[in-house]
């Protein structure tokens, strides 16, 4: 990573919109000591990454060794010692996990979380970096899947939608269609966010509607308004054995 050119100023203004929440602390914590985001072969990739190609260069998106993005597991989105009922609830609603990360990692400042989202996206957009792609997906999924937190802290999600729109606005059309919407990821996440916004929050609902309009205009791409036939695997209901609540099947 390096300084962005200041000329022409319009480019710099666009760059600031992509990075305005990235602090020196975030950069120091996540990037390698030399500050370089390079391509190194990945020893293991998830199924999405095995099939994902950079359609512009024909190269696979590769894993960056030495990146230290905040680790978290979307499948373990409930507290230790949770009851069976709590496991089911927080497996569907990622609010507990999001709040836990906000408290432990981001010092109760959601803009630091968005700063990590921005850094992940920049690593993806500029270097087709595996770690950035994976963390971007993880954070987008996490925030879109929060139900109770949307009601409790709507400002977090206004800022999240603003950040997401700025990012998508910088995507080339082939990058958007070939990478970000791979396996219907973005459609599923935005549909989930739509379902989690309470009808009473007109400001947040209106902001999401603006994002959908932007996507339709910019990419000729519409977010589905109806339930999919199959639920997303990450958010599928979990059956809990009441005799052994930590045995999920």
Report on this model:
The chain has 249 residues and is mostly helical. It has a domain of 171 residues: Aar2, C-terminal domain-like (Serine Threonine Protein Phosphatase 5, Tetratricopeptide repeat), CATH 1.25.40.550. 54% of the residues lie in helices and 3% in strands. It has twelve helices and two strands. A two-stranded antiparallel sheet has the order 1-2. α6 packs antiparallel against α7, α6 runs parallel beside α9 and α9 packs parallel to α12. The chain is globular, with a radius of gyration of 18 Å. The C terminus is likely disordered.
How are the SSEs ordered, and which strands pair?
Blueprint: H1 9-19, H2 24-30, H3 47-51, H4 84-92, H5 95-104, H6 110-127, H7 130-144, H8 148-152, H9 154-169, H10 173-180, H11 185-196, H12 202-219, E1 240-241, E2 244-248
Antiparallel strand pairs: 1-2
Helix pairs in contact: 6-7, 6-9, 7-11, 9-12
Question: Characteristics of this structure?
Answer:
about 250 residues, mainly alpha, Serine Threonine Protein Phosphatase 5, Tetratricopeptide repeat, 12 helices, 2 strands, disordered C terminus
Placed side by side, the strands forming the largest sheet appear as: 1-2
* Main beta-sheet strand count, sense and barrel state: 2 strands, antiparallel
Indicate the CATH architecture of the domain at 78-248.
Alpha Horseshoe
Q: What series of H and E elements makes up the topology?
A: HHHHHHHHHHHHEE
Which strand-content bin applies to the residues? Answer: under 5%
CATH fold-level topology of the domain at 78-248: Serine Threonine Protein Phosphatase 5, Tetratricopeptide repeat
Structural class by sheet pairing and helices: mainly alpha
Q: How big is the Rg?
A: 18 Å
**Counting H and I runs of at least 4 residues, what is the number of helices?**
12
How far from one another are the termini? 43 Å
